[in-house]
Amino acid sequence: MDLTTHWAGLMAVAIFIGAYILVILEENIHLRKSKPVIVAAGFIWILVAFAYAAAGDTHSAEELVRHNLLEFAELFLFLLAAMTFINTMEERGIFEVLRAWLVNQGFSLRQVFWITGGIAFVMSPIADNLATALLMATVAISVGGNNHRFVALACINIVVAANAGGAFSPFGDITTLMVWQKEHVQFGEFFALLVPSIVNWLVTAGLLSFGLSSGKPDPVHEEAHLKHGAWIVVALFILTITMAVSMHSYLHIPPVMGMMTGLGFLKLFGYYLKRRKQDRVPDGPREDSALGSEAIHLAESELAARPYDIYASLQKAEWDTLMFFYGVILCVGGLGAFGYLALGSELMYSGLGPTISNVLVGIASALVDNIPVMFAVLAMNPEMDHGQWLLVTLTAGVGGSMLSIGSAAGVAVMGQARGVYTFFTHLKWTWAIAIGYAASIAVHFLVNAEAFTA
């Protein structure tokens, strides 16, 4: 139905705008972003139901809600499985060992800048851009210490690298995952964005590097050790990704089935880890003259530690992000039920053309957030060739880097380096990120020219 001029439709738009203003002000008012959009989603669908019922249709609203809930359920379970694997790898010490190694190497500030950016770019296609950015930002903060200029520049570089790395993988960002699940871009086709993504990061990092000072940081020494089964968890994660891709590509089953099956494997392995820990806990105090007192103390401390619990890893999932995702999908779906997405598609993709529209999607991702912007594009489902779907995947992925609030990675790192990496610190270098953004689009048109039919 076209209810874009109906009072209920206009009120729904006002509710969504109000909720999103609160989302943007999250850092200032300390209200988690999921809360306003969940409430807004409920009110918007109440208005949809009233408007449809007034038009004599008492069934379509329910069908539309169920359709949106199914879309959310697929993505929710996929992300929950992935987050649980990442949290388990963190609990087993994988990331802590990597961080300790980087901190202890005695690299110069310039080397740390490029190494953390490079690792962020390589890790984010697998571990997602949010977790990767947090890990590398911790390294930059540990090494940089009181050198606030270095920490700020390194954090900007890490956010840009993590977002760029996530743009050429279905597992790197929520937006790429949505595009993959909608089958607009197949798994292997995402790698066509590898070169544009590299250009996006390298151009920006090269410009940022001119602001770096020379010299070495103060020496730091940290120790970290892997827990039992760490590499088995990594292997299970790789197996899970393989199952998700294979089920989607060859069996035409939603990839979430592969992820949840892998999560089941992880839960079984978690049962083994828990039993092993319980079996090794001694019944009473032990004495062993062959061991030094320090070794006995360390061994008993390890045995006294809480056994592995996979539900602790589930608890540590980004629940605010997952609930925010629910609110966004339902809000945008509700606006679509009023006809606003069809109107937007006509104004943008029919009026401005796909290229300009897709470039604007990236800019909008920086101002708002790439999740609702990409979901709106997918809900519009404009007629575009393969090259344009790749373009909007690229712009939505890397466009959010232009502002610190434009991506989950940027928001998370602002919290990690509070007071040093800020919105305005990032804004000073937006011009450099914008040049990288433009360069990546130009390179995409150059290297993927055969994907464009027009």
Overview of the structural elements:
- Helices cover 73% and strands 0% of the residues.
- It has 22 helices and no strands.
- Helix 4 (60-91) runs antiparallel to helix 11, helix 4 packs parallel to helix 12 (256-280) and helix 6 runs antiparallel to helix 7.
- It is mainly α and 454 residues long.
- Residues 281-291 and 296-304 have low confidence and may be disordered.
- The chain has a domain at 58-74 and 106-221 and 319-451.
Assembly form of the protein: single chain
Could you spell the SSE succession in H and E letters? HHHHHHHHHHHHHHHHHHHHHH
If you average the pLDDT, what whole number results?
Answer: 84
Instruction: Calculate Rg over CA atoms.
Output: 24 Å
Number of strands: 0
